[in-house]
Amino acid sequence: MRRAIASLIIVGVAVTPLAGARASSSAQADWRAQVSELLERRAAAVRANDEPAFMATMAGAPEAFRVDRRTWFRRMQVLPIGRYALLLAPHSYDDLSPALARRPAGDDVHVVEVIEQIGFTGYDRRPAQESLFLTVVRRGQRWHVHSDSDLDDLGLLSARSMWDFAPVERVERGGVMVFHQSSASSAERILSSTLDAIGRVRRSWPLPWRARVIVMIPRSARDLQRILATTIDLGPFVAFAASSVERDARGGYALVGSRIFVQPDTFFGYAESFQDDTLGHEMLHFATRHLAGGWTTSWLEEGVAQVYGERSFPALAELRAQASRVRGLPDDHRFFIGSRDSIHLSYEASAHFTAFLQDRYDDEEIARFYEAVGAESPVSFGTDRYHLDRAARATLDVGFDALERRWVERVREEFS
C-alpha cells in the first residue's frame, strides 16, 4: 500500500514530492537495517553466552522485562544450541506500532515480527522457527528491545518455550533427547519408551525418515498451552507432535523443528502400556512431518498414526454407537473442539478408514497417498476435497468421493 501511494505522488507532482518519497524510503530502509543489526547483536550474545552483551540490547527497557529475559538467557546456556538467530520476518507487516495501547518514550518506535530460529546440535537439520513480536525503541543513536508482549491482547503472542517457565534438565541416549522439569526417572522411562517407538515405527511405516527425536515434558498443561499458543482445552489430550512452518517467497511449505510434547497433567495417569502406544502414535506423526503439507487433513494424520504407530487397534465404541449417523470423514475442527465422545469418534473414524484402505491397498500405496496429499501446493486453488481427490487418483487410482462412499457403506454394514 505504501509503495502504491508513493508512486501516485511521483506521477502526479514534480520534483519536491519525489525527493521526499526517496527520503522516506531511505529512512524506512535505515531503521530496518539498524533493527536487524540490533537483532544480530542480541542473537550473537546468546550464541556466545555473553550476558553483558545480551543485556546491553535491552539497555532502555523496563526492569521487569530485563529481569525476565536475563533469567531466560541463563536457562538457555545449558541447552545444546547449534543455531540461534533472530531475523526480521520477510513476509510480515512492516510495522505494528499503530496497534500499541501505550507507546513507549523514544525518538523512533516500531513493533516488528521477528523469526527466532533455534536448532539443537545433532537433531535439527533445519531449526525450529517461531515468531516474536518485539517492540524496538531508538533513543538518540541507540536502539533497544523494549518488550515482547505489548500485543498479547491482540493475540499476537511471542513464542514461549519450556525454559521460559522454569529451568530445564535433559537426558539423552540413542538419538533421543528428553527435556524435563521434574522427575528424572520419568524422563528416563519416556526416553526408553521413545526408543522402542522408533523401532516400531521403522518396522511399520514404509517410507524413510530421520529418527533424531526431541521429547519435551513441561511442568503443566497450562505451560504447554502457552508453548503451543493455543486456546484449545488440553484436558482430553495426552501428547502432541508439533512443528514450525517454514515458508518461502515462492509459496514453499515445510514443517521443521519437530518436537513431541507430553501433556503432563494426563499422560502419567495412564498405564505404561497406554503411554507406550501414545509415544508410538506421536512418533508416526514425527516420522511423517517432512511429507506433510498444507492440505494434509487431520483424519489422515490421525488415521495413519493410530494404525501404523500404535500396537493395538481402537475399540471403536463411539463409531459402533453412531454408525447410522456417519456421513463421511470428520472435519479438522472435530479433533479439537467438542465433547470427549465427539473427539473419540473422530479418531475412531480415522483409524477405521485407514484400516479400510489397508484391506484394498498395500502399505506402500497408502504411504504414497499420504505423501501425494502433502505435496499438493499450499497456495494452489481448490478445496481440501479437490486436493484429496487429485492425490487419490494419482496413487490409488480412484476418486476420493467414491472411496469415502465405499467406506461409509462399510461402516453401516459392519456396525448397524
Write a structural description.
With 416 residues, this protein is of the alpha+beta class. The chain folds into two domains: 2-159, Nuclear Transport Factor 2, Chain: A (Roll), CATH 3.10.450; 194-415, no CATH class. It has 14 helices and nine strands.
What integer value in Å does the Rg equal? 25 Å
Q: Please, what is the average pLDDT?
A: 91
- Helical region count? 14
The order of strands across the largest sheet is 5-6-7-9-8
Q: What class would the helix/strand composition place it in?
A: alpha+beta
Helical percentage: 40-55%
Uncertain segments are: 1-24
- Alpha-carbon distance between the two ends: 58 Å
- What letter string, H or E per element, gives the SSE order? HHHHEEEEEEHEHEEHHHHHHHH
Strands, total number: 9
Q: Which strand-content bin applies to the residues? A: 15-25%
Principal-axis shape equals: globular
Largest sheet: 5 strands, mixed
Number of domains: 2
Could you write a compact summary of the structure shown?
By secondary structure, this protein is an alpha+beta fold. Helices cover 46% and strands 18% of the residues. A hairpin with a 2-residue loop joins strand 3 (128-139) and strand 4 (142-147).
